[in-house]
Design a protein that fits this description.
This protein is mainly alpha-helical. It folds into 2 domains: 44 residues; 246 residues, no CATH class. Helices cover 45% and strands 5% of the residues. It contains 15 helices and 5 strands. A hairpin with an 8-residue loop joins strand 3 and strand 4. Helix 4 runs antiparallel to helix 8, helix 4 runs antiparallel to helix 10 and helix 5 runs antiparallel to helix 11. The relative contact order is 0.13. VSG forms a coat on the surface of the parasite. The trypanosome evades the immune response of the host by expressing a series of antigenically distinct VSGs from an estimated 1000 VSG genes. Keywords: Cell membrane, Glycoprotein, GPI-anchor, Lipoprotein, Membrane, Signal. It is a lipid-anchor; GPI-anchor. InterPro entries: Trypano_VSG_B_N_dom.
């Protein structure tokens, strides 16, 4: 019996109290009030907003990325930040239209070889070998895809099928109640069901419109791109190695076993951040690198001290060739008594000779 129903029965219980003695009436009334309050409190405590913080961080990052992309989308295609933002939003670095993502559930999530894609492959395992041969999506493909993995209900409607908290009206997934995410008892999981190719499609479609599209809105007043990326990275939880996969980072609810984020009590995204294997790196690694390069380009050149700057100016005027050699002092003292002019003019020589003879002894 639900807690609300029990509390509704409280007035009828009071009628039975009337037939008790006065002291017993007071005692019984108090006990029933305490019991009702405890049951309501238990119901509120059991309610949970699954993946709330992870959703908020990723959604804010998508809004900041869209705002930045709208500012620079006119730049050349080879611009690293432009390519990284397009990978973040569209899963490819050659652009796209936001309007296409704001429409109905994209065709990539429709039937793949006659059935819906398995959640384990698209949200939990890296794209490699035969596992990812026919996959149009994989964990880390784009922020848009990862949000879809994070916020679509799982097997048999998890987490809304959890006994106790799941049945509470206050239970949410990514901030949305059960009805907004498709309702019912189905969900997107990794279970093979022969003949049930449409299993969970209603929940996938509802999540795309109730969650994904709301995060594809430009927010110029929200967090900056660097701040939003840092907040998102802060929600990643490093997991223990599993087999050959060493660098694993999880976003969202669920155990990190060998079959992570499958939709069976595992509503999450598992990232594989390593270059040792032959599969794509997560979108956020490229965004990290592009933002770091952009920040280095915007750093001003350090200014020189004015004194050093003046010294450099003075050095420009220093002649590179050595100055002409001056005659030694001895040569100046022993200058010849006659010059070339005296030799050419005998009258001048005669005057000099006469003056020397008339000089007193």
């Amino acid at each position: 019996m639900c807690m609300v129903c029990l509390c509704m029965l409280f007035p009828f219980s009071l009628i039975s109290v009337l037939f008790l003695k006065v002291g017993e009436k007071v005692k019984m009334t108090r006990m029933m009030m305490v019991l009702c309050m405890m049951m309501v409190a238990m119901g509120l405590a059991g309610a949970k907003n699954y993946n709330e913080l992870e959703h908020n961080a990723l959604c804010n990052l998508m809004k900041a990325a869209l705002h930045k992309w709208n500012q620079i989308k006119g730049k050349e295609p080879a611009n690293p930040l432009k390519k990284a933002l397009e990978k973040t939003l569209f899963g490819k670095d050659d652009g796209g239209k936001i309007e296409d993502l704001k429409g109905v559930l994209t065709q990539d999530y429709e039937k793949v070889q006659g059935k819906l894609p398995l959640r384990l492959q698209w949200c939990g395992l890296p794209k490699e070998g035969d596992t990812g041969e026919n996959n149009q999506r994989w964990p880390g493909h784009s922020a848009t895809h990862d949000l879809f993995c994070l916020c679509t209900t799982g097997q048999e409607g998890y987490p809304f099928n959890v006994v106790g908290s799941g049945n509470s009206p206050a239970t949410k997934l990514c901030g949305q109640p059960k009805d907004a995410l498709g309702g019912g008892s189905d969900g997107w999981d990794s279970k093979h069901r022969p003949g049930e190719t449409e299993h969970g499609k209603d929940q996938m479609t509802a999540t795309w419109s109730s969650v994904t599209q709301k995060c594809l809105v430009e927010d110029s007043n929200g967090k900056g791109l660097n701040e939003a990326l840092a907040a998102f990275l802060g929600k990643l939880e490093k997991k223990k190695p599993e087999g050959k996969h060493t660098d694993r980072y999880q976003l969202g609810e669920g155990n990190a076993d060998e079959y992570p984020c499958s939709g069976n009590i595992k509503i999450c995204v598992m990232y594989y951040n390593t270059t040792r294997a032959n599969y794509p790196m997560p979108w956020w690694t490229e965004l990290q690198s592009a933002l770091a390069a952009e920040e280095n380009k915007s750093q001003p050149t350090p200014r020189e001290h004015p004194q050093k700057k003046d010294e450099k100016k003075l050095q420009i005027w220093i002649p590179k060739t050595p100055p002409p050699q001056m005659p030694p002092p001895a040569a100046l003292k022993s200058a010849p008594q006659t010059s070339q002019r005296q030799k050419k003019n005998p009258k001048i020589s005669l005057i000099h000779s006469t003056l020397r003879e008339q000089r007193p002894p």
